[in-house]
Amino acid sequence: MTPAPEPIQFFNRRTGRLETEQIYGEGPLRWLYSSTSGRIALNAVAKRAFFSHLYGFAMDAARSTARIDPFIRTYGLDPEQFLLKPDAFASFNEFFCRELKPGARPVDQTPGAVVFPADGRHLAVPDVSAMDGFFVKGQKFDLPAFLGSPALAEKYARGTLVLSRLCPVDYHRFHFPCAGVPGEPQLLNGPLFSVSPVALRQRLAYLWENKRVLTELKTESLGTVLIVEIGATNVGSIVQTYQPGRPVERGAEKGCFKFGGSSTVTIFEPGRVRLADDLLAQSARCTELYAWVGDTMGRAV
Q1: Which pLDDT score is estimated for 134?
Q2: pLDDT(190) > 70
Q3: Considering 172, 175, 196, 295, which one is annotated as catalytic?
Q4: pLDDT at residue number 187
Q5: N or C: which end of the chain has fewer CB within 10 A?
């Protein structure tokens, strides 16, 4: 008898409990990343951009609105937080990258606060050079490959890194973790593997092989903060909505992901930030911490 797959668990800061993730498309996902036939299909089709573009096209079609109400019911979303009513969206993709009402995600206004850039499940590494595990002990993070620059990687080699993982059920706009002046987004092209723990427990390298967009955010108290959005299977596109060179406030919108789960990574220069105690404690156990965009990630040192 085949053993039951290991559940994906995270600690929910909002409820104070360890919870089990309800994985969207769990059956196909586990088949793709945990079986021989699935891996063949993964490398032949699923990781390729055309597959995600076709899926994104289907989610842009008017008939895709039929998916909205069942999705809301299945995953227990709260329409009262949405800026628009569910029947106002012209496609599932419009619903997927929906805006929320003002105040639905309060931003920590404490002086020196650094906030999470997205709703999701967060893992932290206080010192990238000393990391001995990410989802699974022993998996090393290849910073030069991830940033696409040995020089940039050397500067941040002992920096602090926070991975924020968004599931398809999450609010899919991402925001700035602190105030500053953002530079131009830099595309680092690549395939589109899943970034679910189902996949990352098998191969962490998907994080630095996948398509990514890197932005440098120059700040007064944190030096230059690196923000990297990571594409994934069925993510139609990574859309930047900010204006390069124009100052932004902490918590300001940076952009959005079209359909699919994905991730954003925030990297700080060494010694610049003190992360929240619960984030450090859960990350030390390789357990993700669930929190909302605007919630406290840490404090500037």
Answers
A1: 66
A2: yes
A3: 175
A4: 94
A5: N
What number of H helices and E strands is found in the chain? 10, 18
Separation CA 67–CA 51 (nearest Å): 20
Report how far residue 212's alpha carbon sits from residue 233's, in angstroms, rounded to the nearest whole number: 13
Report the length, in residues, of the chain: 301
Instruction: Please say if 262 is a catalytic residue.
Output: yes
Has 122 been annotated as catalytic? no
pLDDT digits (tens, 9 = 90+) for 13-47: 999 999 998 765 545 555 455 556 655 544 544 44
Give the residue among 138, 134, 115 at the shortest CA–CA distance from 124. Answer: 134
In one letter, which amino acid is 57? Answer: F
Task: Give the pTM.
Answer: 0.87
34 is annotated as an active-site residue: no
- Residue 133: helix, strand or coil by DSSP? strand
Residue type, position 282, single letter: Q
Query: Can you give the pLDDT at residue 46?
Result: 41
Cross-sheet strand order for the sheet of 238-240: 173-175, 253-257, 238-240
| Mean pLDDT within 225-233 | 90
Helix spans in 119-271 (H): 143-147, 150-155, 197-200, 206-209
Q: Which one is catalytic: 64, 164, 262, 283? A: 262
Residue type at position 93: N
Tokens of residue 262, six digits: 């994905």
DSSP 233: T
pLDDT given at position 52: 45
pLDDT at 167: 87
Three-class SS of residue 69?
A: helix
Among 52, 64, 91, 119, the active-site one is 119
DSSP 259: S
Name the 3-class secondary structure at 17: strand
d(C-alpha 134, C-alpha 166), whole Å = 16
pLDDT value of position 114: 98
